[in-house]
Sequence to fold (203 residues):
Amino acid sequence: MESRFDLDTRVERRGPGRWSAQLDPGWWIVRGPNGGYLAAVLVNALRGEVADPARTLRSLTVHYLRPPAPGPAHIETRTERVGGSLTSVTARLLQGDQTQALATAAFSKPRRGSPLHHARMPEVDPPERATPPRRPGSPQIAIHQRYEQRFAVGAPPFSGERGSEALSGGWIRLAEAPRAPDPALLVAYADAWPPAVFSCSEL
Fold:
């Protein structure tokens, strides 16, 4: 069965470069939908535009122009260039005649050889021992029900334990039955985590 995340980020093809989506208020923050949720919807349309499973999402930039309303939206996608290994695509999320968000993405085939990075996972408590979120007095936000989070790096946001630097990290997964991450879920995770500045006392 499809997860709620899959259902709420699903797009349907309506023609060449045209897609429909249904924006669900269960992913809302204070003024509108969480940016990661909108990015996931756009990524699903962009993947449909590329239509090549050998090329996966490598880069994504989204400009959020205004907060969309819950309900129907449509997406216009365009392939800007197809190269030997890289495809560049764009997408616009619209309601009525207004563009709500604009995305630019790159999809590519895997490159041979070792990746050029030296990132290492920090030594942190496992999820079952990490700190769950505490939000005393914070507004009830719909998206808080969509994810399970555990804080392991920096002072937990909303806890009153403000740190001296903007540093935050930990564990996150869907609150429903977990599933393997794909590009849409990964971009949703990236923006669902509270901004690091929320952990800093020097505001």
